[in-house]
Design a protein that fits this description.
about 675 residues, alpha/beta, Rossmann fold, Serine Threonine Protein Phosphatase 5, Tetratricopeptide repeat, 8 strands
Length: about 675
């Protein structure tokens, strides 16, 4: 006697009898085919971004309708009829099985189609992933040409170029050359392929801007830097309205598509800028950025004041304009007004809680000397974007400057190099300083030379010359300065570098000659004394001047300079109990040791030299091994012991670095 089937088996048999299972299988196959077709034609046909999502929603709705209809109705030789319920006995009639033959064939075909499409999709995905991974996604945005009848509109032209560049830099899958790297091609007289070769990029975006009153024309075009072929162009021709923001976003999107770059949802949100309530606010903000650039490169405080005034005007028009608030925050950070910078950062968060730029907050803490808070926020940023070069660079700096933890820092520097070392000279300069710190002069020179190659700024040229002559490479340093200063407008810096070089070498007559030439060209000593901004610590070059005066019979002038110099630095040590910033302490201790050496006060000089054993030894602005003031101590046993102890610590760190390289942990 057959057993009565359970409820679950009854239900399953009823699903099969009513062809629901077959309908689900066939529907899934058809839906999968439709989705694949949409995916394949979306890009060529430039379908709207929401097309695929809409198709999925419609297919889901259709799925439930298909199930309902298959349960209620059946297709028979006589046509569509309502399915009649039957009393189940655990078996399906032969008649019913016979009728289901067509459905079985359809089901088998559907299953085969699904399997084939899954396999095809997997293979296509693998190929697409490989193509995307191998595709060279390097691009440079050349300075836009100003075609406006009024050349005063240069600020607007630069602003458009900067905003498109910034949008592209927000896409982590792209490698975008920095603005500083491309500035030398503002009015290029070279072939586009040669520019691409010099910048080491595969694509170049160039453009032009014409502004005449409220009428705007912005033209951009993407060029294959290997062949010189024009790939596409995008033009905005209309009024000065918020539509220009849509244009900027569309350019970023088209570039990303052309370079097979993936834009994450967060990156897309950051690219879609919140426009101001009034375009006047945007215009004033662009003018402020132009003044900020002039201040940053020229160092004239007049430009800083103009930039601040223009940003304030922009915020009067629209107090909640995020771009203007961000720029004011950055301006205050660069001017070392950290409390004000934090105030505007928090104001941005009040307006846009999703803004949460951990690196910006971390930067404020970093430059204001709050290492623990800086580390906390930069580590958070590293979790969000682990490949960001600036985040990794700052994490490395935090470990080096505040703790002399070079071994912890190097993996972060390695990541910064991998993602931005070929684009940004700043990364190479910081790494050069780190190797100088541990006495690896060859690598220090290597990375400083690379920084000059990426952007031959006068300060980088001076730094490289300093590396050479402070380690006794006088001829090499002089040849370098003579050759590079013939092609760069760095006469002031080159003469001052030669002044340092000849003084270090002991040729005081030539040293004074080049010092006077530098002054004639406009050289001025750094007047600022900011105890937190370590690279501007109060007239560092006064050590060279005091040494020059002392060695050329002007002792009183030397002592007058040194008295003020020593007072400022020793007051800092008394007033600042936080000694966590070892890098800064190193600079102060070396300067005080050098000042007392010039004054022939051996005990005080050795006292500060001994402090270098406790902190770190960074050879700036001079080297103990070559600076003339220490010559009188070269044979002193205590002096030798201090130098030996310092070098022993540095050698131990270098040995650790070598072991890391042997294990493949770093490759620098």
């Amino acid at each position: 006697m057959p057993q009565n089937p359970g409820n679950l088996e009854k239900f399953w048999n009823e699903l099969k009898r009513r062809k629901v299972i077959q309908v689900i299988t066939v529907y899934a196959a058809i839906a999968f085919v439709i989705l694949q077709l949409v995916d394949m034609v979306a890009e060529p046909l430039q379908l709207p971004d929401g097309t695929e999502a809409l198709v999925i929603v419609l297919l889901c709705i259709g799925f439930f309708i298909a199930i309902f209809l298959s349960w209620v109705y059946d297709i028979t030789p006589a046509g569509v009829s309502k399915t009649k319920p039957v009393k189940l006995t655990g078996q399906i009639s032969l008649t019913n099985k016979a009728k289901s033959g067509g459905w079985k064939i359809a089901t088998i075909i559907s299953a085969v189609m699904i399997t084939a499409l899954l396999l095809f999709n997997f293979i296509r995905g693998e190929k697409r992933q490989n193509i995307t991974a191998d595709f060279d996604k390097t691009i440079a945005v050349l300075p836009f040409a100003n075609d406006s009848p009024d050349k005063e509109n240069e600020y607007f032209c630069n602003g458009m170029m900067d905003e498109i560049l910034n949008d592209l830099q927000k896409i982590g899958d792209l490698r975008v050359k920095s603005r500083k790297s491309v500035e030398r091609f503002r009015n290029p007289d070279q072939d586009i392929k040669e520019i691409g070769r010099q910048l080491d990029v595969s694509f170049i975006l160039e453009g032009s801007v014409r502004k005449n009153g409220d009428n705007i024309r912005i033209a951009t075009q993407l060029i294959d830097a290997k062949t010189g072929d024009h790939l596409w162009s995008e033009i905005y021709n209309g009024k000065y309205t918020e539509k220009i923001f849509d244009f900027q976003s569309s350019v970023a999107g088209k570039v990303a598509t052309s370079l097979l770059a993936i834009i994450s949802p967060d990156e897309q949100r950051r690219i879609e800028v919140r426009p101001p309530s009034d375009m006047l606010a945007h215009d004033l903000n662009l003018k402020a950025l132009e003044m900020f650039r002039n201040w940053y490169y020229k160092g004239d405080s007049v430009y800083y004041n103009l930039a601040l005034n223009l940003i304030n005007q922009s915020l009067e028009v629209d107090p909640e304009y995020i771009d203007a608030l961000h720029n004011k925050c950055t301006l205050f950070t660069q001017a070392h007004q950290y409390d004000s910078a934090m105030k505007y950062y928090e104001k941005i968060l009040e307006i846009d809680p999703n803004y949460l730029s951990y690196d910006e907050k971390g930067s404020i803490y970093f430059f204001s000397g709050k290492a623990d808070s800086a580390l906390k926020y930069m580590l958070k940023e590293d979790e969000v974007d682990p490949d960001d070069p600036w985040t990794n660079l700052m994490l490395g700096q935090l470990y080096v400057y505040y703790g002399n933890e070079v071994i912890k820092a190097l993996p972060y520097f390695q990541k910064a190099l991998a993602s931005g070392g070929d684009l940004h000279p700043e990364i190479n300069t910081v790494i050069s300083q780190t190797f100088l710190l541990i006495g690896d002069n060859a690598k220090a020179e290597k990375y400083q030379k690379k920084a000059i190659f990426l952007r031959p700024e006068c300060s980088s040229i001076s730094a490289y010359g300093h590396l050479l002559f402070t380690h006794g490479k006088y001829g090499e340093a002089l040849n370098f300065l003579d050759s590079i200063c013939m092609v760069n407008d760095c006469g002031q810096n080159c003469n001052i570098s030669k002044y340092y070089l000849y003084l270090t070498q002991g040729d005081f007559e030539k040293a004074e000659h080049y010092y006077n030439k530098g002054v004639d060209l406009g050289y001025k000593q750094i007047e600022e004394y900011n105890v937190l901004y370590y690279w501007n610590l109060y007239k560092y070059d006064n050590l060279y001047l005091a040494c020059l005066f002392n060695e050329t019979g002007r002792r009183d002038e030397a002592l007058r300079i040194l008295k003020d110099y020593i007072e400022v630095h020793e007051d800092f040590l008394k007033e600042n109990k936080d000694t966590s910033f070892l890098f800064k302490l190193s600079i102060i201790n070396l300067r005080l040791a050098t000042a007392y050496a010039i004054m022939d006060e051996k005990d005080k000089s050795f006292k500060y030299l001994a402090e270098l054993e406790k902190s770190v030894y960074f050879e700036w602005p001079c080297s103990i091994k070559t600076f003339p003031a220490f010559n009188k101590f070269r044979n002193d046993p205590e002096f030798k012991a201090i130098l030996k102890s310092i070098e022993k610590k540095r050698a131990a760190i270098r040995a650790q670095v070598s072991r890391m390289e042997e294990k493949g942990e770093i490759n620098m």
